[in-house]
Amino acid sequence: MRQLLPVLRNKYLMTAPHILVIDDDQAVRDVLQETLSAEGYTVSVAADATTGIQVVKERPVQILVTDFQLPDINGLEVIERVTRIDSKVISIVMTGFGTVECAVQAMKAGAFDFVTKPFDPDTVVVVVKKAIEFQRLRQENHLLRKAVREQYRLEQLIGISEPMRQVLDFVQKVADSDSTVLIQGESGTGKELVARMLHFNSSRKDRPMVPVNCGAIPETLLESELFGHEKGAFTGAAQTRMGRFELANGGTIFLDEVGEMSLSLQVKLLRVIQERSFERVGGSRTIQVDVRIVAATNQDLEKMVEEKRFRQDLFYRLNVIPIVTPPLRDRQSDIPLLIEHFLKRFNHMKQTAISGLAPEALELLTAFHWPGNIRELENMIERLVVLKKQGLLTVADLPEKLHKKAASQPEMKDQFIRFTEDGIHLSNEVEHYENQLIGEAMRKANGVTARAAQLLHVNRTTLVEKLKRRGIDAKPRVDAFPN
């Protein structure tokens, strides 16, 4: 996101902002046109509202500076009409009355600011510059939000393995629900990514997603972080502070490592889930919130319940919709796709030119156990990209410990289907076996779709369609894993 900011700023600053001045006084129009043009702005002027509104219809206007009293219609009505044409226009009102009532009316109509007549032209320049900066920040925020939503599209959950297909299907079904979700899985399996997918694919996507790492915040501070505190509630509470639940109002709160929360705090969290209300630390006023709760843990909460380390009633409240993120060792067919994704990302971030992996190196990485899961794989690829900088990654570039651990692991054996007393679902088993075959073919083909189709003796278009149904981008590309 930091890399995106200069691009957005440069794009926004490529053309001079267009300012429209509407005033029936010729002297005011001339002074503002001369002053603002000297600042490098493009300035249009109009003697009445009708002419000014026509200018907005014909060409983009960034800033509107209009008199309060105009010969045809009121300046506030001008603002309303202009806003209906283009909601991005920022309005500034000039008034000779200078009363509080005029200012209030202008703000209610959507004006950014107002200036009183007679005015110093430099004062108008200052207000216009503030308005342009506000508009730039608003546009930048809009583009950043759009970029974030793109980043967390469901298609970004990479994988064709059966465990990942199940996660994707689940996220698709529950994303737009307000139900509480509990994400369980080992460290590094992408629990936070799943939480963000849930938020940014829901109706709450334009509201905040507020994360809280319950394991990283000291117990004495966690209650204040969650619920806020009133001034003087404890030593050091110099002012009233909003908590994370208030900040997330209308959006989503993500309680990471919720299993680390103390029993006393679990009681207070339970109340928030049940009643959607709480009091700040040291306060008595009940605060209502509309917030979706998504929690995550790498611990076995059911075992913790049995050991009396986690409240049973809270577990049931959190576990309304459970999602389990699979460890990387259970989704080997996804490893080539993840490696390709990380190589592209780090090549872009580090300005490097790694062309791909040699087949032997890819085979070693695919066979590795990855106890740190996706996070460990991501860190490994970043390290390799930084050290190698360009060319093809080979076995010699991989850490020695990876060779030894991979060599010591037993080879995967074919698994046979075992019938239970209730039998099996034939279509599910056939689909599962097909997924395994496709995943293995993609691994053998080093991620090259055409080669994988040859290995499976199917048309490339057939394989592409199957990959698309599994949420995998199979468009023609420069091969990340050349033969």
UniProtKB/TrEMBL annotation:
Places the protein is found: Cytoplasm
Keyword Ribonucleoprotein: no
Main location: cytoplasm
SMART domains: AAA, REC
InterPro entries assigned: AAA+_ATPase, AAA_lid_NorR, CheY-like_superfamily, Homeodomain-like_sf, HTH_Fis, P-loop_NTPase, Sig_transdc_resp-reg_receiver, Sigma_54_int
GO annotation, cellular component aspect: cytoplasm
SUPFAM superfamilies: CheY-like, Homeodomain-like, P-loop containing nucleoside triphosphate hydrolases
Domain Sigma-54 factor interaction: 157-386
Pfam families recorded: AAA_lid_14, HTH_8, Response_reg, Sigma54_activat
UniProtKB keywords: Activator, ATP-binding, Cytoplasm, DNA-binding, Nucleotide-binding, Phosphoprotein, Transcription, Transcription regulation, Two-component regulatory system
GO molecular function (one): ATP binding
Record PTM 4-aspartylphosphate, positions in chain: D67
Domain of life: Bacteria
UniProt GO BP: phosphorelay signal transduction system; regulation of DNA-templated transcription
Keyword flag Methyltransferase: no
UniProt-recorded name of the protein: Fused response regulator of ato opeon, in two-component system with AtoS: response regulator sigma54 interaction protein
Lineage, uppermost ranks: Bacteria, Pseudomonadati, Nitrospirota, Nitrospiria, Nitrospirales
Protein encoded by which gene: atoC
